[in-house]
């Protein structure tokens, strides 16, 4: 997986920071991508409408001659290899996001966090909280009914 960094922040924090930075970068490209995709979709729609009926007839013929038992047998081995490839890509992507997050967060934040962590370790509970826990008020005595 990833190598342990010299900071006190866990790798998932850096991965989240890297993912956020990558998301901002990609969102800035979104308007141009949307324009390009809408133009390509309009052009493709005209072409695909013309080819749809021809392709449907070809697929009907192919389905009647296909050996589905052979396809089922092959599917398990192919799925296993795809799963391994996906796992390798996920590990590589996670590692890249951790590295990106470390750059985004920077060393100044790490130094500040080390100071805060050191302060948290040495800080004791405030005396007011301790005193409140130790000195619980005594229960009030019950009033007795007056007897005649």
From TrEMBL:
Annotated organism of origin: Paractinoplanes ovalisporus
Compositionally biased spans, kind Basic residues: 139-148
Domain of life: Bacteria
Protein name, as recorded: Phasin family protein
Region (Disordered), start-end ranges: 120-148
Compositional bias per record (Low complexity), positions renumbered to this chain: 125-136
